[in-house]
Design goal:
The protein is an alpha+beta fold. It folds into three domains: 196 residues, no CATH class; 96 residues, no CATH class; 53 residues, no CATH class. The chain contains 13 helices and twelve strands. A three-stranded antiparallel beta sheet has the order 3-2-7. The chain has a three-stranded antiparallel beta sheet with strand order 4-5-6, with no helix packed on it. The protein has a two-stranded antiparallel sheet with strand order 1-10. Strand 5 and strand 6 form a beta hairpin. Helix 3 packs across helix 4, helix 4 packs across helix 6 and helix 7 runs antiparallel to helix 9. It starts with 14 loop residues before the first helix and ends in a 10-residue tail after the last strand. The relative contact order is 0.12.
């Protein structure tokens, strides 16, 4: 399957040529020497790819899905991480009105402004370790959909050196039952995001699930918890020893029959006509010892990017330690945002090439709105500190996850609706920003906030523009 012929009507170079110019390392390089992976691993992968899918990777992905279905903790880790990744949605930052308009139409067609679509892609990335998006074109060579494919069925067709054999048929989808090739995709037609591959430059090295290293511990944890329940059911109940001194077998059988016949009722009295008694045998007094479960639980969350205190296990966790662990978790979320956003940026760039637009690498930047999942107050406080340092407004707005071009347009629209001679950007006759009062004064005091951070104070000018009395 190839859509290259449909691009013959364009006056530009074929898309395959432009794709090779954008990503030269994904095809053969004349100056490259050696292989990108050991020869034994390359030969083994070559044999597998020649006939079937990678069943080891498929088994791992299926296990991650099974863990997500069976264990609410795993589901919460996957769901919480995916929600934190897409928090705020995608933001296109560009100075070009053409690119901004193209992005608005592109995002609407691909439903990239749909929270469920973004979360589905994010969950696929963390559960499967890969995010393969198939670019679907219409008759006019417009990208109309980015369909997430099952990553365990995708096979990258690479040589022993880890490069695509033929970029026009870079990926194949195989039937997991028969190994039959269901479809073939060009390199530009399959946007692939890989999470923690063994070697990113090796194009045949697929990503790894976020919790793949915790699979063994998870199995032990589930078995131990099941054993714990069985142990409680078997050893916890109170037992009674009925002692009848001098009783023969017939008397014992009769007493046992009469006593066991009343098991469905609450027995409070026993009547004996000989020396004996009923002695209580307490259940296992060590049922509260669950150090083994606690150890496995801590080991499981040690391999997870998120601290276990975020999921309800708060025993023995100090606030300062939790803050440090949350900061590490937010750093991991930032990396996931970059990985997922990079896939969408690749798809958008291919769309622009199909439209005959070849933007430079710095003409647009696609990111998720909220980095490090900080609160709104933290973002605003950081922006005020940047403002006190005199950084440009566009830089501050970009770091806040906002679109400077959209904010500028909204300012102009607001000024035009209120003032027949607007000057929302406060530009003087000489083309320079106007000075004077009317702006907020931001002061930063070092060491005046929690944990030794700097404090921020904002003073608003009065009706006289801050000129005083």
């Amino acid at each position: 399957m190839s859509y290259l012929r449909s691009l013959a009507s364009t006056a530009l170079a074929p898309l395959a040529t432009r794709w090779a110019a954008l990503f030269p390392s994904q095809s053969g390089l004349s100056g490259e020497r050696g292989d990108r992976q050991p020869s034994d691993a390359a030969m083994l992968r070559e044999l597998k790819n020649a006939m079937f899918v990678d069943y080891d990777r498929r088994a791992l992905v299926e296990m991650m899905r099974d863990m997500d279905r069976r264990d609410g903790r795993v589901k919460m880790v996957h769901g919480r991480t995916a929600s934190d990744v897409i928090r705020g949605g995608l933001v296109m930052q560009t100075t070009s009105d053409v690119l901004a308009e193209e992005w608005e139409r592109f995002a609407a067609r691909l439903q990239l402004n749909n929270w469920e679509k973004l979360k589905s892609d994010a969950r696929g990335l963390v559960i499967e370790g890969n995010l393969p998006l198939q670019l679907v074109l219409d008759d006019a060579a417009n990208v109309v959909a980015a369909v997430r494919m099952p990553s365990e069925t995708m096979v990258p067709m690479v040589d022993l050196g880890g490069r695509f054999k033929n970029p026009a048929a870079a990926f194949e989808q195989r039937d997991v039952m028969t190994g039959k090739v269901l479809a073939s995709f060009a390199a530009w037609q399959m946007a692939l995001g890989r999470l923690d591959p063994d070697n990113w430059d090796d194009l045949g090295s697929m990503g790894r699930p976020m919790l793949d290293g915790c699979a063994g511990v998870w199995r032990k944890l589930m078995m131990t918890e099941e054993d714990l329940v069985i142990r409680r059911r078997v050893r916890a109940p109170l037992r009674l020893a009925h002692i009848l001194e001098g009783a023969d077998q017939g008397v014992l059988d009769a007493y046992r029959q009469s006593t066991e016949g009343e098991k469905g009722e609450i027995t409070t009295d026993f009547y004996l006509n000989r020396k004996g008694g009923v002695q209580a045998i307490q259940g296992d007094a060590t049922l509260g010892d669950i150090d083994d479960v606690a150890h496995l639980l801590s080991t499981f969350f040690a391999g997870s990017p998120a601290p276990k205190a975020l999921f309800g296990y708060t025993d023995g966790v100090a606030r300062d330690v939790l803050d440090d662990m949350k900061r590490q978790y937010y750093d991991y979320v930032d990396g996931l945002q970059d990985a997922q956003g990079g896939v969408y940026a690749f798809v958008f760039r291919i769309h622009l090439l199909l439209k005959g637009i070849d933007p430079g690498p710095d003409e647009f930047y696609l990111r998720f709105a909220q980095r490090r999942t900080e609160s709104a107050n933290q973002v605003a406080d950081l922006a005020l500190k940047w403002m006190a340092l005199g950084l440009p407004d566009e830089h501050i707005q970009s770091e806040m996850g906002l679109d400077p071009q959209k904010i500028r347009a909204m300012k102009l629209k607001q000024a035009n609706s209120n003032d027949p001679y607007p000057n929302p950007l406060k530009i003087g006759p000489d083309g320079q920003p106007q000075g004077g009062g009317g702006t907020s004064n931001v002061s930063v005091t070092p060491g005046n906030a929690r944990k030794g951070e700097s404090g921020t104070a904002v003073s608003q000018p009065g009706s006289n523009g801050g000129r005083g009395r």
